[in-house]
């Protein structure tokens, strides 16, 4: 029997990349998956892929930066299924790299809204439903930028550091309710965000990774699903770094 038979799983940002891979893996493990994204075409494509693979999924469009939209999303899950067992708060965006003195505050705020406030909005409405239905597990998508920085975009680093902090607060506050909250922290992963880059640019992303390549969405999805499973039942409030050995190689 799968760990997720008949469980209800929500994945935001599931219209492509890591979110799509996670949604498909949850479905393959028996979960009833709610695919959510601001892109209805991408979201429906994920649902269609899951249907073709014999899984069960539905699409609900929602913008995680809009708390009312997130509240409606969780209310629809409650009305349809009466429960929420696992969630992957994955929706995000990557702003351009700029020197601090050149940062455009409008784009900075937009990145913070999606990458950090979006996670807070989701947690705010997911957690009460999980409390009502005897617990659950949540994984937020952070980044190696959650624990580092370097030459990454300022807003991205600030937001992803915030995601890890929010994860730890939520994990502490809801542990007694049987809810675990963790963060996955991948390095560069082959997603649509990298489309259009040259081979030379892609090689620059893999520079410094001992495994000499960037990550794949399925590799992150596997970690997310494991963190939501009973096999990680004593793990909460933690960052799981998925980086091909990059941090291990730092002197």
From TrEMBL:
Keywords: Oxidoreductase. GO terms for molecular function: oxidoreductase activity. Belongs to the short-chain dehydrogenases/reductases (SDR) family. This is Short chain dehydrogenase.
């Amino acid at each position: 029997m799968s760990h997720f038979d008949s469980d209800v799983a929500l994945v935001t940002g599931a219209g492509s990349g890591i979110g799509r891979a996670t949604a498909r893996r949850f479905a393959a493990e028996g979960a009833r998956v709610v695919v959510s994204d601001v892109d209805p075409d991408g979201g429906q494509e994920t649902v269609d892929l899951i249907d073709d693979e014999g899984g069960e999924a539905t699409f609900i469009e929602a913008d995680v930066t809009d708390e009312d939209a997130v509240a409606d999303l969780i209310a629809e899950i409650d009305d349809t299924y009466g429960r929420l067992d696992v969630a992957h708060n994955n929706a995000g965006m990557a702003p351009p790299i700029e020197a601090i003195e050149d940062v455009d505050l409008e784009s900075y705020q937009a990145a913070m809204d999606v990458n950090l406030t979006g996670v807070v909005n989701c947690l705010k409405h997911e957690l009460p439903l999980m409390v009502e239905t005897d617990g659950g597990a949540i994984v937020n998508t952070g980044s190696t930028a959650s624990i580092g920085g370097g030459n990454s975009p300022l807003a991205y680093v600030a937001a992803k550091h915030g995601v890890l902090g929010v994860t730890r607060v939520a994990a502490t506050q809801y542990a007694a309710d049987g809810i675990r909250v963790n963060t996955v922290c991948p390095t560069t992963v082959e997603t649509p965000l990298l489309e259009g880059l040259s081979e030379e640019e892609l090689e620059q992303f893999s520079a410094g990774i001992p495994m000499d390549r960037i990550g794949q969405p399925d590799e992150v999805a596997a970690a997310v699903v494991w963190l939501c499973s009973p096999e990680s039942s004593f793990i909460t409030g933690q960052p799981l770094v998925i980086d091909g050995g990059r941090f291990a190689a730092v002197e």
